[in-house]
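Let us work through a complete example step by step.
Step 1: write down the sequence.
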Amino acid sequence: MAIPEYVMSLSKRCLRLAIATSFVGMLACPQAALAWKPTTHVYLGQQALNDALDDGKVTIYRVDYQNGKVLSKLGDYPVDPTILAALKTYPAQYRAGILGPDAYPDILTGQQVIHPSPNDTGIAGGSGTWLKYLWNLSNTPGNNTPQKKAFVTGYLTHAAGDMYGHTFINNFSGGHFVIAPPGNAIKHILVEGYVDKRLNKQELNANFFNASIAGVEDFIYDNTIDAKPGSYLDTTLLKPGGGGTELSIPRIYSTLRAKLQRDIDAYYAAKSDYDRRYDDKVRKAKACKALDFSCSATKLYAEAAAIQVQKGAYVTANGLTVTYKEYWREDINSGLKAWPQVSDRVAKALFFNPDRKAKVEEAKTILQNYVNNHLISMSGAPDAVGQFAALASKLSTIIGDVLGPLAAPIRQLKANIYDAIVKSATGMSIDELKAYLENPERYFDRVFSQGAGEHVNLQTFNNKYLRINDSGYTNPSESFDYQQFPAAYNTATISKLILVSKDGVNQLLTDLGSSSRLNESNIMLGFIQTLDGDNEWIGGREAPTHPQQKMVVAENCQAYKQIFMLQPGEQPCQ
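Step 2: predict the structure and record it as tokens.
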């Protein structure tokens, strides 16, 4: 059958939605809001992985906090046996986990729902609630596979990188990522892009880029995408109407599916009620006694027959519509289940591949295939639409009733959506954004000589902060040593401690002379509330004005200063 014009129009808008919420979200919002770029995230996490796999222990060093130098070895701390076993067998899943909410469930949902503070999302505990949720799940029967443990351990490692990376970058941008003034967004992009270009390229081999979600797809779907009504994901983390969910594919289509399911359930409940009433009349008719004139079997059978007629009319009026909605529901299920792999492939095309290129055309193709294979049917044109010719005149009304208020954000995604979304997210066009990402050194001195944040030129940034000798970008092969770059060193150190058991962390605290004890099951749990802010290890930038719990090592400042370095943007530990 010819698909009604409304559905074709909807399909086009859905394509724009897919691109807007996925491709543009991945290209614009996420890249702008990252702390370290994904390659830098994985590079620093890989330092912890290499240390752990070497002998099953991680080495923690004493440092000169003020001057940012490694002094001497403090001790070797055993990696948690479960984590070690997972990392030995599934390092690729660990690296995928480190991509974290920059890739899974998709970058837009990660950036708009998982990264922000409780004030922005309405999630009590913010990012930390997501981390604890996923970590606890990875320890429960059915989810405690080594692949999932490796992945979630990587996810926590991503959060650790954001904690120190954002503190560093926010120092130069003047604060956490915001669209206005536009200089803030540009500065974020330039710092993260330039640091990424100064990684040791010899370590970025094919194995480095081997990140896989094999064995984790269902975990990602079940726990970050499939927001079934009443689930923790639905009621707490990815709430309908929650901050940042407006263009989240998992939230939009979970909401649509729930509406369809309610309609389907109501239909079958009504049919069951007809059957119950019919059975009740027949039962009473059969119970009538021959001489009991108060009980008329003939009348009861007639009433039962009338109920059957009513049921038939109800089914005729509603049955095909409900079947349509059942197909629609199943197409949503299929599309949402495919979303982890799509997000994985798009993320790798855009920012985590051996060529270190943003492969825009490849990402577009992946998303276009998703639109064609899933998103159109998920939005009201089920794959079996040809079976519903009899509904053609009512189809636009049916779809409109289901979409309800969700039709509005779809309609807003007009032509030229790429540039429109990028500008709304960053104040820049795609071309401008790509220029800043790919060639940050060209704009560095001009941008960082004005506006909020520390003013610095490229030579000073190289010499003082990355501690490399290049006076500009005359020697592109020169890379930083993470042990001499405090923000990177701090990231690597906390990444190591994420791998250590609770008992191991408490032993470290004893070795540091601290009486504090870790009560959580991992050092990254119980204190961080946003991945976008800074100084989260001491309760955030506003601490102690608005105190929140500190990272356990930072509860004793002297202990903290023995193993972490002072970095730009750091607030005094007190």
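Step 3: interpret the result. DSSP finds 24 helices and two strands in the chain.
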